[in-house]
Sequence to fold (823 residues):
Amino acid sequence: MSHTVITNNFAEQVKAIPGGEMLMMCFSCGTCTSKCMIQEKLEPNYNPRRLIREAVFNFEDTAFSDETTWLCTACDLCYPACPQKIHISGVITAVKQLAVAQGRQNPYQTAIVDETTCVACGLCVQVCPYQAITLVEKKVPFRGFISVAAVDPGKCMACGLCNAACRSTSIRLNQDFNDNHVVENLWSWLESEAV
Amino acid sequence: MVDAARQPLIEVKAYTEVEKVEGFVGNFKVTLREKAKYVRADRCNGCAACAKACPVEVPNYFEMNLAPRKAAYIPMSQSVPLIYNIDMDACIHCYKCVEACGALEAIDFSMEDKVIEEDIGAIVVATGFGHFDPTPMTEYGYGRFPNVITAMEMERLNNSAGATHGRVVRPSDNVRPQRLAIINCVGSRDKRYNTSCSNFCCMYAIKNALLLKQMNPDMDISIYYIDIRTPSKGYEEFYDRAREAGIKFIQGRPAEITEDPDSHQLFIKSEDITLGRVIEHEYDMVMLNQAAVPQPDQNHMSSVLNVAQSPGGWFMEYHPKLRPNDSPTDGIFFAGACQGPKDIPASVSQGSAAAARASRILHSDTWQIEPTVAVVWPDRCVSGKGQACGICERACPYGAIDYTKGLSAEVITAKCHGCGACVGECPHDAITQLHYTDAQVLAQIRTLLAVEPEKKILAFRCQWCSYGGADLAGTSHFEYSANERGLRVMCSARMDADLIYEAYRLGAGAILYSGCHPQDCHYITGQIAGAKRAARLEKMFTRLGMSEGRFRTEWISAAEGDKYARVINEMQAALDAIPEEQLKAEIERLKPEMEKKLTKLNEIPGVEEAMIQVDFIVNEMLNKAVPV
Fold:
């Protein structure tokens, strides 16, 4: 059996980012995990408690490839339930920021901007709860040097608010959650026997 | 309890409230309110005829409101003394009890509360603890879901004298539960409610689980826990027995309880930490092992007894390790959970110890107290000359100073705890504290600042906290600036403004004003007085244009050695940041300001002689090249 010695200071890095300060206070009671809607409805392997322990013990790579890092929507259902008053989504966001800073890609698709139609009205910037969208000046094929919306994949949590708010359907989620797919799902649900 | 009541030297005063405690060790005057029971103690024989005749039923508090009681009642079947009581809030004045009592004529509706004053030598406080009400924790549904009960309710259900005569049943349908869950740490180890661990609940959960399992071997019992704490003798073995008996232990704090509204079955969702998976189990009944919290009237008792409270609201002991039985007030002792949650063996030990310590006082003709008491110089006190003052009386946290206009203030030595708050506050320097007289402290300041004062950091430390912090910094090898010069007084309240002025007049580079955190103060409100003065001084020094960092106020506990070292190092850095010429000019500029405030210093008895001696000693030290 091989022994691993981890020498990085990942926990310190997480603690240094606003939101991650309370990292070491976790006593691993598991309230956050059992409170979590993503764990219950989407991904059984999702576990904020485990992610915090990975961060505490400097398991940087494990933390970066953990689903928990990328799937948290910062709904903060766990925050008021935590007996240690740890802002858990703050810790997760800190881990995610470090992952993005090291060039990790979000394995789940984030919002996509259609730069050929975006008019840079800024509506999506206003509605985004995670401040993931900014307006940038860039060169767009056939349109020249113009201002368009840009999504920061490190911050985007794929909630779809921008998709719903956009008046020119220039920003959307991936194929499972785009407008057509949602409408199709709605129809099939309305026609189902359950209704 | 029955044994205690039979002992001829013990008088039990049931249904009596302590209204006022005056006096001091060995000579307390305690005012008691003996509440009217409307039943005469000398005639009642406890036959219960009145309770049988009484037509009024109200919820029984002792049974956790699971059963009714009559308006004529005893609180519990083992009540001592066994005298019935009529609850006037519930009584409808039908006088059926009077009829039932008959020739005994024990019931007397004309009784009134009796206020009596007793001479008491020593007081043992054993007021116990209260229970955390889990209703605010909506996630557990207590109060909404009938089958979620508290530990105390389970205790009454499981008691053969209780509401169900010992049959444990579901409140929703009176059926014996097959699957029972116990949730630990409800309201304890929870920063939203009570940060502390309630000490005994792990063992309590195991005890209840084992008891139920022994009576109902087919019952499926699970205990949800964060950590199981079984630190005392035989406790781990008991935990083992529970596992042997088949009780399941699930590590994981449940996030939520949900209920099927038709069957009232309960579902607990929690993460099983060891599996790393979220599990949901179905139960017939859930017991919430709620936190131990201070009694609801603990704050009131604390002001009646004049004893401080620790963080969390428990009564504060004199010293957490060395004098855990004693209150900070001489002659008042604590027994049991009123001082902090503890289990039965610990409460019994503390009770025995408190009784032994109290009897030391009762068997002594005289009592030794700490020698650092305050003394008034009657010829300097302006009250004696007819001026209205009384500042010292208001400053004293113990009510140990008698101030009457026209007479000089007087210290009741037995009540004085030697904090020196009166000394620090007296504007006429008419009070001094033995062993910390102005002359003595001033002599220390002058010695410490004899050489190159502008490079020195003078640290005023309180005896109990920041001095301990500095001590810890030393024993823990935390390095801090060698220019620090420490000076001990009993409390931050003793750090007289005159002492600070004198230090600056002598040219001190920086001054640290340090003491306990407000909740830790050894002298109830001493730190508050000290903090107020420090804030006042800080404001004044800013107005006088003193450079930033030359006066600093910090509250440092005896456990914060690292903080002490850090504060001193930060002060050194702040001092280094001021150019030397500028610092010297500033000291010279402020000197006359300080002198203006110190005109009467040499009038204080002993100061002038002390200063001559200090100069002599310092000269001797310099001659012999002893580092100063």
Observations:
- The first strand of chain B starts at residue 16 and ends at 24.
